[in-house]
Amino acid sequence: MNKFSTLIVVLLVTFFATSFLVNAQDAVSLKKLGWLKGKWSRVTANVEQFETWNIISDSILSGEGYHIKSNNKKVTEKLTIKWLDKKLVYIADVPHNKKPVIFQNVVLNDTLAVFENKSHDYPNKISYLKLNKRSFRVTLDNNAGTNSRVMTFTLVTRR
Q1: What is the pLDDT of residues 96-111, one digit of tens each?
Q2: What is the pLDDT of residues 59-107, one digit of tens each?
Q3: CA distances from 3 to 8, 76, 83, 103 (A)
Q4: Structural domain range at position 91
Q5: DSSP letter, residue 108
Q6: Does 17 reside within a domain?
Q7: Kindly report the CA angle at 128 between 95 and 94, in degrees rounded to 5?
Q8: Which helix (H) or strand (E) element contains residue 6?
Q9: Number of structural domains the chain divides into
Q10: Torsion sign (Cα): 81, 113, 136, 98
C-alpha cells in the first residue's frame, strides 16, 4: 500500500471513530436526564399543575406542562430536550411566544441540568435540580437582566 492509500485509510478510520464517539457521548449525556421521565406535579393556588417527560429516543426527551380545570386539560407548554447542531438544547413552546424558544445546555451532570438563552426576556435560565428519586426543583431565572426575577418550584412524582 502506498503512502496516499494509507493516509486515506487512516482518515476514514478517524472520521468514523470520531462520529461514533460523538453519538455515544450524546446518548450518555441524555441518559443523565433519565430521572426526568414520568409524571410530576405541584399544587399552587388550589390548582394542580403537571409536567410530564418521556424518553422518545437516545437523543430526544419530550415533555409538556399542563393543568386540569373542570375536567379539561389545558396544555401550557410543550418541551423538548434534544441535540441540535451538535448542542444539547431545551426547547420551550409556549402559547404567548410566536415561536419556540431554544435554550442551550451549560451544565449537565447526574443531578443538575442548566439551560440558558441570554437573549430571551424571561426566563433566560432554566435549571432542573434532582432532589431525590421522588422530586426535583425547577428554577426560572432572569440572571442576564437588570431586573432580578426568579421563580422556583418543586415537582413531586406521580408515576
Answers
A1: 889 999 999 999 999 9
A2: 899 999 999 888 889 999 999 999 999 899 999 999 988 999 999 999 9
A3: 9, 61, 38, 46
A4: 32-157
A5: E
A6: no
A7: 5
A8: helix 3-31
A9: 1
A10: negative
